[in-house]
Amino acid sequence: MSGKTLLEAKAIVKELGQGAGKVRALKGVDLALKGGELTLLMGPSGSGKTTLLSILGCILSPTEGEVVIGGNSTKGLKPEGLARLRRNQVGFVFQDYNLFPTLTATENIKLALDVRGMAKAEQRPAAEKALIAVGLAEKLNSYPGQMSGGQQQRVAIARALAGNPSVILADEPTAALDSENGQAIMALLSEIAKDETRAVLAVTHDPRTLPFADRIVLIEDGLIVREERPVKRGIVKSDAGGSPPPEPTPEPEPAAEPGQVEAAAAPAPETAAITVAAQSTPPAQTAAAPEPAAVPRPAQHAAPHANATSGNRRKRSHRFARGEHLP
Prior knowledge:
Distance between the termini: 122 Å
Mean pLDDT: 80
Shape: globular
Oligomer: single chain
Number of strands: 10
CATH superfamily of the domain at 5-228: P-loop containing nucleotide triphosphate hydrolases
Radius of gyration: 42 Å
Largest sheet: 6 strands, mixed
CATH architecture of the domain at 5-228: 3-Layer(aba) Sandwich
Structural class: alpha/beta
Low-confidence stretches: 235-248, 261-288, 298-310
Strand order of the largest sheet: 6-7-8-3-9-10
CATH topology of the domain at 5-228: Rossmann fold
Strand content: 15-25%
């Protein structure tokens, strides 16, 4: 069940470029994210998804409109104010992980916590807690090059979670992953989104993410064109947990009334009479169709006595032709 609104975008307009090359990437977008929900933002390339994500994450300022995160408005904020709001309220998950290759998983998260201003004594415990929460208890001291793509994305999610933000924004979180790891990451984001103090928004093109969504927002040409709330019928997860939903049990056929059973079992009188007649009639008499006309057989298949008669006739013809007397 969704909680209160944690982020709200109001009449967002964003213009990019200058002069004749100026384009309006967003044309008055209204969007609210509530706690306890995983929202998918989908749309074709050039529809404004990335621009909207950057504005919601306080990376860009809108040309018109405002974003309110955790009760704090972006209206009139300078870059320093946007950065401060972003550090305190927003966690990012990037498509390419954005991990420092020379730092361990724990050190990558500690660095993010240091930027947020967390006390150094608290950073390691918080980083390890976040890694354990995403299933990486055995990778605390591993470097990115020693982990799979799915594990690196889990580190990125742990980094976003560690600062306890109210909103998590994920940019194509499954794009660089295979099907199994992609579903595991979406299952993890779906689990994180169950916390009503946190809202999760993922920009994606991947149709495999749809079963995990609580809400789907479609954007085209800089405008929100449709919203959907799919009915979740179960999610097929990878080894990270869960199992395919059971097949639905077919409903049994309704039982027939006793009188209907007897009527169906007993043949009608006319049918019974025909059946008895057919059973008592010999097979030769029951053939309804007339037999086909006999086809004359070739001479070579004629009976022996017919061949003998024909031969005698030929002999008599030869004798008559020689002038012999015939009896």
